[in-house]
Fold these 4 entries.
Entry 1:
Amino acid sequence: MRRLLLLPAVVAVAACTTAPSVSEHPKPSPRELEEVTAVLKRDFRARGQATMDRVELDEVQRLCNLHADNPPAELARPIEETQLKAIPFPAGSMMGDWKNGEKIAQSGRGAMWSDKPGVQEGGSCYNCHQISPKETAFGTIGPSLAGYGKTRGNRPEIQRYVYGKIYNSKAYNACSQMPRLGHSKTLNEQQIKDLVALLLDPASPVNQ
Amino acid sequence: MAGPMKMRATLNGGFTDVRVLMTHPMATEQQTKGKPHFIQNLTVKLNGKIVIEGEISQAVSRNPVFSFRLNGGAKGDKIEVSWLDNKGDTNKTETAVA
Amino acid sequence: MRTVIGSAALALAFAPALAQQSPYAEYQRMARESAPVELFELAGEEAWKKKQGPKNVSLEQCDLGQGPGVLKGAYASLPRYFKDTDRVMDLETRLLHCMMTLQGRSREEATKRVFGNADNASEMEVLSAYIAGHSHGMPMRPGTSHAKEKAAYQLGQKLFFHRAGSWDFSCASCHGEEDKRIRMSGLPVLYKPQVARPLIATWPAYRVSNSQFKTMQWRMNDCYRQMRMPEPMFGSEAMVSLVHFLTVTAQGEPYRGPAIKR
């Protein structure tokens, strides 16, 4: 009871005190970046499938960290190109089974130290995107993908773009917040094809 | 098995407000695949006399908190709350009205 | 008199009449009223006073920054620099230090089970509940003047924005933009003081979704798990620095925990 009564008073006091000055998103120097990696190597440990090589930065992570996710185009473009070149696009149709794609999109599991490798891997798609109209518990970090194929069709070029974007989002936007689901070996070729179908198959609930 | 309980009883106008916390898994049929474990009976005594006998179900969450208001009461009155679960475990706590 | 009662019905019956509210706000209010936090505080008091370890002593002489055994306001002034260890420590790191020095316990033994489960909370969790409860209502004032405190803030800030791991995530990937959510959970922008304040000032906390009492070190640990990173070591400089950065960002807020959270 005492606690509840105290609350309005203390909130009023809090509103009067000045907030500390916090710089929004600082850009580390290359040396500072190395220091952070050294701290991670010292203070983290491998657990399950989450091995210590994960703290090493690749060219994408290095670029985005150094430029606070906003690199100049002349630095971003060559990196996007090398990322794009490294995508092993499958030959032929990239449309898998949208029903299985929906399951993968729903699952938030995969690649964590608590996950068994090769079991229940998901794309965590609904964590950030609106996709099928049937799922109302969707996140908003990424854009809505509702009706994605309805407006774009499913020509080979569109399939290729969607496959590539899921495989390696950084090939199209170097500092995208979206994980590189194929590049990181979280999802395999068939799973990505199933997600392509979820977005592009005319029979998928996404396009109803 | 019986974890701690905590109770507070305060005089409030002509009433006694009681809040009691109890440690219990309150495991449902579904969670345990047919071996639920939950408090079934709750008894409140005022100076040794039963004033509430309650039945609760699996629908109540883990570590339940109950609050209720008794008519009347005076400083120093003894309130006792006890529970009995479906496995026969029991626990009780007692406090004086403040 | 025979009454059939249920917690939800009771909570409602005695709630003041409320104006139209979102169902989530209503859920939060009801959760707050039925928080079993005090049970963990009770268990924590027992753990604080329990004689154990090779030296068979309790933690009652542990110095959390306000002098040996002083609990009042201790949590609200952490993390801070400690001269005896020459490093910045948060509550859990300091408790571990006391277990090792006062009680003579080994790091291995004392950290074997720092995160508990619904059936059995850990010693660290109940101790955190008990100690944090002694700072209720006091403004959060982590140490900010010592050079090592400044360095901890700087490192914590860098860690917050540092993208790494299989999924290229930093803390800011989820906690860096306003009005975003994962599934239905709102994502607080934790480097903004006005957002960080009410949240940081309510840990440690009882989580209704899994009926567990959880600490800040656990919160950091579970975020890194979901970030697809390796596991941060309990009480490491990296984790203390991150907790320090978040607490300094929230400084000035009256401590309102241990609270209840989703």
Entry 2:
Amino acid sequence: MSTTVTPKQPTTAEPASAAGPAAASATFPAAAASAPAAPGAPAASRGQVDISTVRKSFGATEVLKGVSLSVPPGGVTVIVGPSGSGKSTLLRTINHLEKVDGGYITIDGRLVGYQVRGTKLHELREKDILQQRTDIGMVFQNFNLFPHLTALENVAEAPLVALRPGDPRRRTTAEVRARALELLDRVSLKDRADAYPRQLSGGQQQRVAIARALALDPKILLFDEPTSALDPELVNEVLDVIRELATSGTTLIIVTHEMGFARDVADTVVFMDQGQIVESGTPQDIFTNPREERTRSFFSKVIEPAFNI
Amino acid sequence: MSTITAPAVPAADYSDYTLVPARHPWRWVGTVVVALGVAAVAWSLATNPRWEWGVVAQWFTAQSVVSGLVETLKLTAISGVLGFVLGFILALMRLSASPLLVSVSWTFSWIFRSTPLLVQMLLWYNLGYLYEKISLGIPFTDVRFFEVQTTTLISQFAAAVLGLTLNQAAYSAEIIRGGILSVDQGQLEAAAALGIPAWRRSTRIVLPQAMRAILPNAFNEIIGLVKGTSIVYVLAYSELFYTVQVIYNRTQQVLPLLLVATLWYVVITSVLSVFQYYIERHYAKGALRTLPLTPLQKARKFFATHAVTNARSPR
């Protein structure tokens, strides 16, 4: 846990404080119950994520069927499950890249993408959503680095343009540059700062993408299958960087197929199937003593017997 | 199994032989034929007196021709810039979520792409016949802030610019839209996830990448526009082509004077092609692992390496 967190000035109404605890609990009993951080000082917690009965459909297919999940600040949560189970969609709802059809998500007690007005949740304006996203870093399966910008420019872009005047994270151009180099150093790519993404290997590109996600000093980092597009021999260099982040106190939520890695770093493993959370628990619980038959059959297919001692 | 049981013949040793590349006799025949053809064309251009190169040279830099040239460049520049600006707006409208904006943009492109430019040009020039006065006021009331005779507002120049601009906008809208669509959706997602504001997202992330797809087509359009301006002769506007026509109607030296205009168009197009090369190279940054050398760099490298070998060879 970082101890030098400055309390962020809320720019939009927080559900609990704006409507008052009484009103909030009257309208949203679940919100008060599942957001224990809200009544206390939000400054104390950093990166508590509460997902409450989130539903999402694409056309006729319901990909999230009322998913609820609570992620403690500073924890490492790994979401596993077969493809099409809704893992990535769930992850993308956390920074409002995917709009929910029902339910809601709070970060440190504050609604993501919406604000309370009367008895309704109104979607925020794009500007405010963008501002919320500066607290949530995201790393994509296909890296999505900006190909026409160098590694350094990729990392420095958001801190230069995404923060509002008055944001305590605002820095001068020179400071942003220095910090970007520092971050590239942290992922062992300082010497490639002036390289364009296409001049880097897949593993290097993903490490730059991680540095880019860290550049705004986010409370939460989302990883959407960060090693799935990599050659096997490049997977570990990326996992090592994530492993190092796991001890930094930032909340990490990782969707991955790397079961060995999940067992190593996760505080909580969540198993999803067909748009629902089947079960969640410590890696020990989930990998060795799964309660559900569905979990057991999934792991028997994906974990090699030799590995599963 | 026979391949394994056939070690009877000892492997031959070819290490002392010289390698000879395959010969391509027909490639040589083709080269000779084409070379003869090129020589014949060049010879006829140089020796046929009816080309009247002397007349071409005399008129090439004549003051009237040069001022016609300036008008052509002016029309190209103004309608090119305005056309692409309007085209950009139309492209954004077409990509917007509002059905009204989408259909207005679509209809604009539909109309201006389906009517001949010549007709559009004459229509704009004769706008005074359709609408005697043009006024600015509050619609559906009698309030007028400003009113003017259409014929004084729509000069030949204004009609030419209007016609070329609107026509150009219809085409460039599609080119720009295509460029924007060619940018991977993941780029927008990554930018949105980082909280990069919408305007910055368009100008810094999407457009520079879209430019790779836009530029070759855009230069096609600009080069087309340079020559397209010659259509303005129907308005008796004295750009390059009209000027040349006026001269040959007087002197009866039709072909040499058309050649003068043609040569100028070739010069403009050539200059634009050089610009195109360097602008495309600029936007190729990051798209290629290493940028190819420019012709200038190639030449320098050629002389540098050859200078080195020459310096070493006497030894």
Entry 3:
Amino acid sequence: MKINRNKPDVFPKVNALLMILICFITLYPIWYTIVLSFNDANDAQMGGIYWWPRVFSLKSYSAVFANASIVNAFTISVLRTVIGTLTHVFFTAMTAYAFSKKRLIGRNIFLAIGTFTMFFNGGLIPFFLLLKNLGMLNNFIVYIVPTMFNFFHLIIFTSFFRGIPGSLEESAMIDGANEFRTFVQIILPLSMPVLATIALFHGVWNWNDFFWGVIFVNDEALQPIGTYLYRIIAETASSNMKINMPGAISLKAVNSQSIKLATMVVATTPIVLTYPFLQKYFVKGVMIGSVKE
Amino acid sequence: MRNHMDQIPLRKLSLKSRIYHQRYLLFMALPALVWMIVFNYIPMYGIIIAFKRYRIIKSIADSPWVGLANFKELFTEGDFSMVMKNTLGIGFMRLFIGFPLPIIFALFLNEIKHAGFKRTIQTISYLPHFISWVVLGGIMMNWLSDAGLFNEILMKTGIIDEPRFFLAEPESFWNIAVFSDVWKELGWGAIIYLAAISGISPALYEAATVDGANRWQKMMHITMPSIMPTVSIMLILAISGILTTNFDQILVLRNAVNQSASDVIDIFVYRVGFKMNRFSYAQAISLFKSVVALILLLGANQISKKTQGHSLF
């Protein structure tokens, strides 16, 4: 890699090409899937589609949106993500605010108990048995309460709260506000970047998770879109899908493959739509998370 | 009077009045303590089923103790060697390939001087991290099928003569698992190193330029040493996580045909525990994994502390 000063420096150009290649390899499989999902299902089976739909068709999408199970699964995903993320962020941030006060009684015990949870856990089976004993299996609450808190996120919140000038809190205290009111009215509005970061992390996990719907829930009415996709992709339940489909849509215009592709695109769209708005926050969030307490 | 109370050194107050004084803070912190005891620590009590013969109809306490019988069964039945081979095989490949690539990517991306171009590359490379494994698994099944695009490319370039069904080949599974993970996490994994690089003082590079250092020398003698603390921390975490494979990913990509290569510890626990109702047996290997991971974490942390001076704790 020794660079000869007499020759023109080719490294920047080679490097730029390499980066463009990486971007292409990253984007193309996603683009290819989108293109296929918008192509007529029968025509797509002949192959040869690479860059743009050959016979444009929205039939796969009409089939997806006409499928009651898919619409229900999508709704469960939305509810789970919105409620789960709001409760997680509020509960973890509230705890972190109390924890950020050095004077908190038992703070060191709390730190020890919390740190240990980051490196050791009982494993899947004891966790399952706990949820069974708590009556949370087959219950929507399983998506909310068992993921309400995360000690690593608490550390991220704590380091952010430490950076907020104490004078703001003091003036609220002088006005007679207690710590909880100070947290809600003063601290939360000042903490949008870190709230957005944690909401993004937890929201993306909530939206993308499919295993909780596989293992903790049997009731089909409670399965999120990821679990639904898992079942049609990994367990290929395409026969069930045809039963759910209204007769108005011709069976020939769509097939299980085209529905799979369209469902995949539908399941990913909310993430891709919110991604640009949240991007500025998560880079900061990762940096805060990497700083030791 | 709150402000009056703040003037008094806290140690002189009795515990009772300190609790009263902090009642709002405690009200904010205690629910999470209860939450951790319920959702983190009660499952740790459940670990004891590894030493019992647990049946789902009985409670954990009522199940009979069997000592190390589950472990004996595990180590003699042959499952263990297959599961360990797959877990360590994928784990080491991830450590040797998946760990350094984001660092290299960050170093090369840092050499892109055009800010807009750099930001675009970052935006694109982070994107796959946010897509669910179940969707990517669906994309991969499409690409890797016998009529898929991957076969088409390999045939057109003459690398293979007839289509292969890659997901039905146990010998391909480790590569599929590791390289699809690299594809998904390359950009995201680089964020932390890019953050570390952006913290390096430009004066160091200026001084090196004056001394006649070339790009490569600056990379090796300024950038690399400056990001070593971050690399060390990430390496400790990577080593302690060597037995933790990507559960969601493998759950989607595994099937009955590639099982001999895709049965890793976490999948085995799920398959044997939940599909075959052998909870105690599955918990034995799960406990084995947790203990080894904890030992690896403490060990890697100690080694890093001694040799590099950087550690988690």
Entry 4:
Amino acid sequence: MSLALAAVTAILFAAGTWLLLQRRLTRIIIGIGLLGHGANLLLVTSGGRAGSPPVIDGSAGSPAEYSDPLPQALALTAIVITFGVTAFLLALGYRSWQINRDDKVEDDLEDRIVARLNELDGPEGPIDDGDPDTNEFEVEEDAQP
Amino acid sequence: MSTPLLAIPVVVPIFGAALSILVGFRRELQRLVTIAALSVTVVVSIIVLIRVDEHGHLVANSGGWSPPLGIALVVDRFAAIMLVVSTVVLLIVAIYAIGQAGEERERVSFHPLYLVLAAGVSASFVTGDLFNLFVAFEMMLAASYVLITLGGRPDQVHAGMTYVVISLVASTLFITSLALLYAATGTVNMADLAVRLADIDPALRHGFSIMLLIVFGIKAGLFPLFFWLPDSYPTAPGPVTAIFAGLLTKVGVYAIIRTQTLMFPPGDGGANWGDDLLLWVAAATMIVGVIGAIAQDDMKRILAFHIISQIGYMIMGLGLFTVVGVAAAVFYVIHHIVVKTALFLVAGLVDHRAGSSRLSSVGGLVRSAPIIAALFAVPALSLAGLPPFSGFLAKFALVDAGLSQGLSAIVAVALAVGLFTLFSMTKIWTGVFWGSAETEPERAPQTTDRFGGPPLMVLATLSLVAISIGFSIWAGPIHELSQRAAEDLLNPAGYIRAILGEAAP
């Protein structure tokens, strides 16, 4: 049973990491969600084997037969936090879509300005860097003769 | 020694935040609540520091559960120093924020969020439980997510996105580390962890050490995990950036120092490569931060890159793992919180006065606003490490500690980076205070203020600059206090005994 949980955790982490590396905001948000699920599942798994409910009413024999309640409490806390922050991220994503009508994540504006300084200083002199909305890497590729 | 006093720096701001929402219809009442709550926190923090310095550690068990079962609140000298400095800075920046008129600060949610942020910062310092540290971080970060995007302008949404996603990845890694730590040791109490980690496989212990270093390194802006910081911090409104720059990264540094000294002390069975790793990371962080600053044109972004290079100095002090080294790191952290916050407040004043913080759009402020120029000069020279300011004393202690261990390479890096820092500060000085503007600022300059800015803003900045000068006047007692804090940090047995009592081995 623990092996199945470990495998599910691994899949969630892998899928979450892949989605996180995309340029589309919606995919990043889903990726964060999957990563959070993976981490919470790992937290539950860290409590060890399943056992009787951790309520001491005399139904189970030795303390070893109870399941460990602490990781479950920790996982609950973590789930609540992940839930709240994901909701905020979705709101932020919606606001971003309202502004840009596009959910592509662009490079930082200041980074692009600094990257352009470099070209102005180069031996080629000022170059036409085309569409200002493209990212700095594409601009640098254009600069290569 | 046990006392319920420790909960106050967390509980009072939280209740203040709730009250602040209730009186949300009146901005004056909200301001009053913020100032009152933070003032109480400052007073309590100072009492805690005095008592901790007398008695050693203070412990409070929440809910009356004896450790390691319940959540323990623990304050040692280092935590108490951080608590005092951070609450004082939070109070001063709150005054600055009240003095600055602006759309963001007129919103209902600014004051409650600011108080939640304050509670999160305090909780990070007083907690003795690793999972509780995660909760404190989340409290602080959740408030910071909203503060950075309050207003919803396009650049804020863009920068906030990077910040939120990176912080969430760090938080997920934190939960993952906690789960693995719990699976390996069966506890999340830091003192208990320190005891039990000593018994597990050294290779596994190194793995945990690196995982926690990565988690807190993202928050602190260590090389190579710093890239998000200069993109996201400068877009927030002035006072918010100042708090983020001054405090939030330093909470990460605090967590690194706490976990590395308590749970992964050096010298127990070939941990030496880990110590060297910290020094390498420190050197890379210093160099990359200072070189990144040279290319920038915006005053706030130059300062943001300097946060990174300065974090390198603190990690260098920790990496030495001697009492003098860690004492220098503690002194450096508190000096840097005050100085960096002051510099960002000055950047806010420049932004207000000249309508922009770009070097190319601002000029000649030394003549038109000499007070701002003076307020910039003192912390800037202090940051670069010129005598007689506090930065010089902090760097001197660090260099001295490095040389006494014969580590001349890292000392050379530290001194060279200090020189480049001076270069950047000179660049800001010539760009903003001398010369003239080459391009038009984004907003119309405000030239009517008598002191160069609204009185409350200037007063708040002035008091921070005065505190930083105070650090160099009373450097002796403060350095002795850092020395005692460092002795506590490098002797984890005292911390463990204070929490676990007689049960400790």
